[in-house]
C-alpha cells in the first residue's frame, strides 16, 4: 500500500514522503486493512522498528475527535510528543507531571500524550476531556503483565471504554505469546507479524565463536582464560570493539548500575573506541566531525552538568565514546547520553535492562552480557520478553545492513533454549494482587463509577483479568477488599460517609458503597490506600505532639514511611549513624522504631527524610549523593515523590480538619530548593 492512498491530509502525506515513507511496511498495511483508519479496534503485536508509530498516527489522524496516546514511561512521552507535534496541522498536549491535576486544558488538543498513571489520575479527578475521546492508543500494552503498571492500565482501559463509549482502541505490543487474548479482550482485530525492516540475527557466544540462529558463525578474538565474569566482560569488549571498528554502534546490557559503570570503564580502554572517539581520534564513524575528536567535547558537556562521583565516571568514559545509562544517573546526564548516542558521538552505551523498554536508541549490535538479575534474595533469569526487547534494539532502519544480538553466558545451551529457540511468555493479568485491587476498588467508587458492589463487579468484568479468568469469583475478592478499605476508614458500606471513617457494616456487602471524605481525598491525590491510612495516623499523632517537636523532619519522616515512597539502600557502615540520628531526633518522628512493622524499612525512611531535610537546608547535590551513596537520579526522584506525598498529606490534613500546616511548609521548602538548584545549575 502506498502513502498516497492513505485517508490523511495531503500535507501529512507529503511529510511522510519527505521523511522517506512511501510504501507502507507490511504490518502497517495489515493494520490499515484491519480498519485502523476506519475506527476499528486493532491490536498490533509486531517487532521493534516495524513502524508502530505510523499505525498510531493513522488511527489518531483519522479519528472523529480527540485522541489519547498512553505511554508507559515519561521519557517516552517526550519522544512521542515531539514526533506527533511535527505532524502538520495537529495540536498536541502532554501530561506527565503532577499526579493530581485534572489538566482541563488538554481538552483543546487533537492529541494528548500521557502516562497510564496520569490518565488514571485524570479519570479519578473527573477530567472532562476523557469523555470526548474518539481514539485511544496504548503503547507497550504487554506491560499489562507487570505488577504495578499492569492493573492500572487494564482498569484505565476498562474505564475509558465506559466513559467514552465507542472509543477506538489501538494497542501496540511487543511480540508476546498471547496477543490473541489481548485482542479478544479489547474486541479488536489482531495484526501479528515478525516482519522487521532490517533483518536480525541472534546468537550465543560459545568458546571463541558466536553461533547465530541463521547458521552463521563469528569468530571472536579469543579473550584470555579467567573467571567466568571476567571472561564475559572480555568477550563483550571484543564484540563491541569489532563493531566500532566497523563503524557501527553497540548497546551492552548488564544487570546492575554498578556493572554498567564498571563495564563502561573497561570499554573506555579499548583502542577501537579511544582511536575513534578519544583524544587520539580524528573522526566519527560517518566522518561528520572534521577535526576535533568527539569524546573530550562530550566529556566537557557532561562535566558542565554536575560533578558527582557518577558524573565524573561518566565524563571519564565518554572521553572514549562510551556512555552508561541507568536510573541512578541524573536526568540531564541520561538525556545527554541518549542524544549523544543518537548524534553518534558515543559508540556504545552500557545499560541496565530498563533502556530496552525506553527511548529510541537502536544499535547495529546488541550484546547482552548478564542474563540474570539479583532480586534481593537470589539470582533469577531475566524474562524472555525482556531479553527479546533488548535484542530488538539491534538493526537501525536506513543505517545498518542487518542487526545482531549476541548473548554471552556461562551456560550457552540453556541460554539458547530459553532466549533464542523459545518464544516469549504469555501476558498474565496482575489485577488480583491485593494492593492493586484495593487501590482500584477505592478509585472506581470514589470517582463515582460504582456505588455498589454490583457496580464494582460490573467494571471489573470488563478487565483483562476477568477475560483471562472467567471462572474466578471476583465477588469474594471484592468483599475482602471492601472490608479492608472500610477498616481503613476510606470506604463506607451501607452509605455512611464522614471524615472520621465509615460506620461500616461489613457483613452486608450487597448494599451501597461510597467513599468517605478521606477515601475521596486518597483517590484524588493518587496515593495508595495504605499510604493514605498511614498518613492519617501520622496526622493524628502530630495533633497530639507538642508544637516544638513538629518540624519539617516530622513531615518528611511521615511521607518517607509510606509505601508510595521508593525505598533506599542502607549500607552497613551508615546503619549505626542513621540509628544515632533517629535517636537524637526521636521526639520529631511520628513513629518509634518499636511501633514500626519492620525496623530496617523504618531506618531507611529515617535516612531518606534526613537526606531530604538536608537538601531543603541547602546541602548541595554532590555532597548528598556522595555522602549517602545514592545516585543523583535517585535524589531527583525522591524529591519529586516527597513533594507529591507532602501535598497529599496536606490535603488529608484538610479533610480531617487538622490544624497542622507542617506538610505544606515542608513542601514549599522542597520547591524552593528545587528552584535554587536549577538556578545554581544554570550558572556557568
Ligand atoms: P517502532 O515499531 O519501534 O515504534 P517506529 O515507528 O519508530 O518503530 O519506526 C521505526 C523507523 O522506521 C522510523 O524511523 C520510521 O520513520 C521508519 N518507518 C516507519 N514506517 C516506514 C515506512 N513505511 N517506510 C520507511 N520507513 C518507515
TrEMBL record:
<dbReference type="InterPro" id="IPR022965">
    <property type="entry name" value="Helicase_Hel308"/>
</dbReference>
<dbReference type="InterPro" id="IPR011545">
    <property type="entry name" value="DEAD/DEAH_box_helicase_dom"/>
</dbReference>
<feature type="domain" description="Helicase ATP-binding">
    <location>
        <begin position="33"/>
        <end position="194"/>
    </location>
</feature>
<dbReference type="InterPro" id="IPR050474">
    <property type="entry name" value="Hel308_SKI2-like"/>
</dbReference>
<keyword id="KW-0227">DNA damage</keyword>
<feature type="compositionally biased region" description="Basic and acidic residues">
    <location>
        <begin position="267"/>
        <end position="279"/>
    </location>
</feature>
<dbReference type="InterPro" id="IPR014001">
    <property type="entry name" value="Helicase_ATP-bd"/>
</dbReference>
<protein>
    <recommendedName>
        <fullName>ATP-dependent DNA helicase Hel308</fullName>
        <ecNumber>5.6.2.4</ecNumber>
    </recommendedName>
</protein>
<comment type="function">
    <text>DNA-dependent ATPase and 3'-5' DNA helicase that may be involved in repair of stalled replication forks.</text>
</comment>
<comment type="subunit">
    <text>Monomer.</text>
</comment>
<feature type="compositionally biased region" description="Basic and acidic residues">
    <location>
        <begin position="286"/>
        <end position="311"/>
    </location>
</feature>
<keyword id="KW-0378">Hydrolase</keyword>
<feature type="binding site">
    <location>
        <position position="28"/>
    </location>
    <ligand>
        <name>ATP</name>
    </ligand>
</feature>
<dbReference type="Pfam" id="PF21280">
    <property type="entry name" value="Helicase_dom4_arc"/>
</dbReference>
<keyword id="KW-0238">DNA-binding</keyword>
<keyword id="KW-0347">Helicase</keyword>
<dbReference type="InterPro" id="IPR001650">
    <property type="entry name" value="Helicase_C-like"/>
</dbReference>
<comment type="similarity">
    <text>Belongs to the helicase family. Hel308 subfamily.</text>
</comment>
<dbReference type="InterPro" id="IPR027417">
    <property type="entry name" value="P-loop_NTPase"/>
</dbReference>
<dbReference type="GO" id="GO:0016818">
    <property type="term" value="F:hydrolase activity, acting on acid anhydrides, in phosphorus-containing anhydrides"/>
</dbReference>
<keyword id="KW-0413">Isomerase</keyword>
<dbReference type="GO" id="GO:0003677">
    <property type="term" value="F:DNA binding"/>
</dbReference>
<keyword id="KW-0067">ATP-binding</keyword>
<feature type="region of interest" description="Disordered">
    <location>
        <begin position="267"/>
        <end position="311"/>
    </location>
</feature>
<dbReference type="GO" id="GO:0005524">
    <property type="term" value="F:ATP binding"/>
</dbReference>
<dbReference type="InterPro" id="IPR048772">
    <property type="entry name" value="Hel308-like_dom4"/>
</dbReference>
<keyword id="KW-0234">DNA repair</keyword>
<dbReference type="InterPro" id="IPR036390">
    <property type="entry name" value="WH_DNA-bd_sf"/>
</dbReference>
<keyword id="KW-0547">Nucleotide-binding</keyword>
<dbReference type="Pfam" id="PF00270">
    <property type="entry name" value="DEAD"/>
</dbReference>
<dbReference type="GO" id="GO:0006281">
    <property type="term" value="P:DNA repair"/>
</dbReference>
<dbReference type="GO" id="GO:0043138">
    <property type="term" value="F:3'-5' DNA helicase activity"/>
</dbReference>
<feature type="domain" description="Helicase C-terminal">
    <location>
        <begin position="234"/>
        <end position="445"/>
    </location>
</feature>
Amino acid at each position: 500500500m502506498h502513502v498516497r492512498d492513505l485517508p490523511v491530509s495531503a500535507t501529512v502525506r507529503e511529510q511522510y514522503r519527505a521523511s522517506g515513507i512511501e510504501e507502507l511496511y507490511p504490518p502497517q498495511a495489515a493494520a490499515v486493512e484491519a480498519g485502523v483508519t476506519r475506527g476499528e479496534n486493532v491490536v498490533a503485536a509486531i517487532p521493534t522498528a516495524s513502524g508502530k508509530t505510523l499505525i498510531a498516527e493513522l488511527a489518531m489522524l483519522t479519528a472523529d475527535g480527540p485522541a489519547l496516546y498512553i505511554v508507559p514511561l515519561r521519557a517516552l512521552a517526550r519522544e512521542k510528543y515531539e514526533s506527533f507535534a511535527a505532524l502538520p496541522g495537529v495540536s498536541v498536549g502532554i501530561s506527565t507531571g503532577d499526579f493530581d491535576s485534572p489538566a482541563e486544558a488538554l481538552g483543546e488538543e487533537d492529541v494528548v500524550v500521557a502516562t497510564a498513571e496520569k490518565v488514571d489520575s485524570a479519570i479519578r479527578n473527573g477530567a472532562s476531556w476523557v469523555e470526548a475521546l474518539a481514539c485511544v492508543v496504548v503503547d507497550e500494552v504487554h506491560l499489562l503483565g507487570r505488577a504495578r503498571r499492569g492493573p492500572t492500565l487494564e482498569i484505565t482501559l476498562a474505564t475509558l471504554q465506559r466513559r467514552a463509549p465507542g472509543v477506538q482502541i489501538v494497542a501496540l505490543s511487543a511480540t508476546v505469546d498471547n496477543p490473541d487474548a489481548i485482542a479478544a479482550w479489547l474486541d479488536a482485530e489482531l495484526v501479528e507479524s515478525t516482519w522487521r525492516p532490517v533483518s536480525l540475527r541472534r546468537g550465543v557466544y560459545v568458546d571463541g565463536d558466536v553461533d547465530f540462529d541463521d547458521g552463521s558463525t563469528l569468530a571472536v578474538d579469543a579473550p584470555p582464560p579467567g573467571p567466568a565474569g571476567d571472561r564475559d566482560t572480555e568477550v563483550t569488549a571484543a564484540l563491541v570493539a569489532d563493531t566500532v571498528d566497523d563503524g557501527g554502534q553497540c548497546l551492552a546490557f548488564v544487570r546492575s548500575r554498578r556493572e554498567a559503570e564498571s563495564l563502561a570503564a573497561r570499554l573506555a580502554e579499548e583502542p577501537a573506541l579511544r582511536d575513534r572517539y578519544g583524544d587520539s581520534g580524528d573522526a566519527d564513524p560517518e566522518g561528520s566531525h572534521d577535526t576535533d575528536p568527539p569524546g573530550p567535547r562530550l566529556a566537557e558537556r557532561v562535566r558542565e552538568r554536575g560533578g558527582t562521583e557518577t558524573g565524573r565516571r561518566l565524563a571519564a568514559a565518554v572521553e572514549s565514546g562510551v556512555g552508561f545509562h541507568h536510573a541512578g544517573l541524573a536526568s540531564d546526564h541520561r538525556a545527554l547520553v541518549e542524544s549523544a548516542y543518537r548524534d553518534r558521538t558515543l559508540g556504545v552505551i552500557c545499560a541496565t535492562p530498563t533502556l530496552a523498554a525506553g527511548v529510541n536508541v537502536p544499535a547495529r549490535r546488541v550484546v547482552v552480557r548478564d542474563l540474570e538479575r539479583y532480586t534481593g534474595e537470589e539470582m533469577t533469569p531475566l524474562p524472555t520478553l525482556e531479553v527479546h526487547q533488548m535484542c530488538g534494539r539491534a538493526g537501525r532502519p536506513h543505517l545498518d545492513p542487518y542487526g545482531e544480538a549476541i548473548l554471552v553466558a556461562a551456560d550457552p545451551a540453556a541460554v539458547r533454549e530459553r532466549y533464542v529457540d523459545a518464544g516469549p511468555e504469555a501476558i498474565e493479568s496482575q489485577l488480583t494482587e491485593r494492593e492493586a485491587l484495593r487501590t482500584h476498588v477505592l478509585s472506581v467508587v470514589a470517582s463515582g463509577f460504582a456505588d455498589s458492589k454490583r457496580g464494582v463487579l460490573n467494571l471489573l468484568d470488563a478487565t483483562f483479568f476477568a477475560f483471562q479468568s472467567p471462572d474466578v469469583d471476583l465477588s469474594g475478592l471484592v468483599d475482602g477488599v471492601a472490608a479492608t478499605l472500610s477498616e481503613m476508614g476510606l470506604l463506607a458500606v451501607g452509605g455512611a460517609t464522614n471524615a472520621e471513617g465509615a460506620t461500616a457494616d461489613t457483613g452486608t456487602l450487597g448494599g451501597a458503597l461510597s467513599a468517605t471524605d478521606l477515601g475521596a481525598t486518597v483517590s484524588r491525590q493518587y496515593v495508595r490506600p495504605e499510604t493514605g491510612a498511614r498518613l492519617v495516623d501520622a496526622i493524628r499523632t502530630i495533633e497530639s505532639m507538642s508544637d516544638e517537636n513538629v518540624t519539617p523532619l516530622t513531615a518528611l519522616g511521615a511521607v518517607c514511611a509510606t509505601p508510595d515512597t521508593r525505598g533506599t539502600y542502607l549500607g552497613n557502615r551508615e546503619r549505626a549513624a542513621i540509628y544515632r540520628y533517629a535517636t537524637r531526633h526521636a521526639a520529631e518522628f511520628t513513629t518509634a522504631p518499636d511501633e514500626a512493622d519492620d525496623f530496617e524499612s523504618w531506618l531507611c525512611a529515617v535516612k531518606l527524610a534526613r537526606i531530604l531535610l538536608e537538601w531543603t537546608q541547602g546541602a548541595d547535590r554532590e555532597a548528598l549523593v556522595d555522602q549517602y551513596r545514592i545516585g543523583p537520579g535517585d535524589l531527583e526522584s525522591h524529591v519529586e515523590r516527597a513533594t507529591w506525598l507532602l501535598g497529599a498529606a496536606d490535603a488529608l490534613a484538610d479533610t480531617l480538619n487538622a490544624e497542622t500546616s507542617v506538610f505544606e511548609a515542608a513542601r514549599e521548602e522542597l520547591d524552593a530548593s528545587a528552584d535554587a538548584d536549577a538556578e545554581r545549575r544554570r550558572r556557568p
